[in-house]
Amino acid sequence: MKERVANNYGSFPVVFTKGKGAQLRDIHGKEYIDFVSGIGVNCLGHNHPALVTAIQKQVEKQIHISNYYISDVGVSYTDALLKATEMEGVFYCNSGAEANEAAIKLARKYGFGIQAQKKTIVTLKQSFHGRTLTTLSATGQEKFHPESFAPYTPDFKHMKANDYAALDFIDASVCAIMIEAVQGEGGVNLIDADWAQALEKKAREVDALFIVDEVQTGMMRTGSLLASTTLGINPDIITLAKGIAGGVPMGACLFRGRASDVFVAGDHQSTFGGNPLALAAAKAVLKEINTECMQNHVIKMGEKIQNTIRSWNLDIIQEVRGRGLMIGIDINFEAAPFQKACLDNGLCVTTAGLKTLRFLPPLIISEAEIETGLAIFREVLTA
Ligand SMILES: Cc1ncc(COP(=O)(O)O)c(C=O)c1O
To answer: Is the pTM of this model over 0.90?
Structure first.
């Protein structure tokens, strides 16, 4: 495998064969508790009956038809998605980076329509928006800008999150401000609701589009369908991916109001975008996750994880923070060896930055699975 797949990922030498709910099994029959869910993708866990049935049924009808045509599942899912998110239109694609590329192109065209020089896009330090050259340029972390990949897309500026003074530097040259509702890859960093609202006000003052990248936070991950709702903001554009179709590759760039009529036919396209198979999966996911019961479960399980870890009072832990089932644990050491030790002991966790361990379990995870996972986690931290 290693010789044939480009070694960009540095994958662990474990081979999974199947999963059920929040549990995985490897080729040796060893069981694991999954606190990663494919980096926030498998929101319904593994092998969820509603998702499996929806995919099976769609495969028998049609897998792909191209965007020359419209699919019946496309019509019904789009209605449901726009109603649930209170957005007015959507561009479908295949990943988070692609959804953000669409948002960035839309914003540049919006700015150009006002004034040719209105091109600057402001994002946040410690942000992460994807791995294409333009979404890397949007990403506010130096480690993602090595000279080897230069030149990057120009006219991106990175400002400090939760900093009111920084708002003064946003002027009429800015065509868009883009933030994550909770910074994921940058360390599970929370954004103050008051500051996010002030940022949105500033965006409207200078006629810049307000984009919220909900690729990681969206689809109930933080205990509301969209994390921007919790922040009390009304973005012009919201991007989604990861959990949107429960594991089938899919991204979406949603827009409303000022951003609604910017794209015209031919402006932006994607061969696989809005593929009926992905939309059928997304439709099943939306139905399962967008309920009060799921919302209460995510909030309750998130609190359980955070409170349990805090109650241990371990010296190695500096801080526990997060929202819903998106949780970061800062430790006094590099996180990567602990990620590996957890895996060896039957628990999948991920990292977010040098010293932060991150949990993104499936939204359907049970209390018992959390207790088993946390017992392994504690053992690894105290070994
Ligand atoms: C906030 C955010 N935006 C964009 C991306 C990129 O998504 P993808 O890997 O699907 O391109 C990620 C991936 O981790 C993300 O967390």
So the answer is: yes
